[in-house]
Amino acid sequence: MLEIKNLHASVEGKEILKGIDLRIGDGEVHVLMGPNGSGKSTLSNVLVGHPKYEVTEGSIVFNGKNLLELPPEDRAHEGIFMSFQAPTEIPGVSMTNFMRAAVNAKRKYFGQDPIPAGEFLKLLREKRKLVGLDAHFMSRGVNEGFSGGERKRNEIFQMAVLEPTFSILDETDSGLDVDALRIVAEGFNMLRTPATSAMVITHYQRMLDYLKPDFVHVLVNGRIVKNGDASLGYAIEERGFDWIKEEINA
After folding, report:
1. pLDDT digits (tens, 9 = 90+) for 124-178
2. Are 141 and 91 in contact (CB under 8 A)?
3. What's the alpha-carbon Rg for the chain, to the nearest Å?
4. What is the DSSP annotation of 137-151?
């Protein structure tokens, strides 16, 4: 599904990613861990096409297409979704109108007619149940007045509606209490299929408990320095990152 080779990227002239190699197959969940500033969020933003980030070397192929040639909106239509660490508030734009615009933009990209009103409302009802999002949120502005947990649930709700093939969760667990984390994680797990994949950025073992990832990768100073399964994440939870840095420098 996704193949990244020798990826280098800079922000405002400062190199952050220094040669990322990563392959994510269909149906796989990969977790990225690493110290703050190691490049995890930079990698996410490069994948979705944030204009602030400049790719200086390397390649990204997504489902056979050169991702770096696609504008951000086309990457989204092709099936890439990102759940933000700090979801943005959009006052004055209701969740219903926001999601209708997003769904119809994707349909237009694939040459389809706009979704019928009845079908769209049924879709919203079905997907809201996955993450425990109440109906009254649909008439409110996007994330307007939402708590931190509600914003994160709303991100998973959007993912459920848009049905991406590759999802990026950038510290979705940050700031969530135990109940909210469980609801978000269970909603995400319900959306997993053999044809969808995900990259999850987290600092916490509790996400590993819920998501049961196939692979865990550790980023240090802009490079993936260690790969493993969920046991690697548990070792980091217990021992931190210093032992990995010592292995690198040995």
Report:
1. 998 888 777 788 888 888 888 787 777 878 888 898 999 999 999 888 777 667 7
2. yes
3. 18
4. GGGSEETTT--HHHH
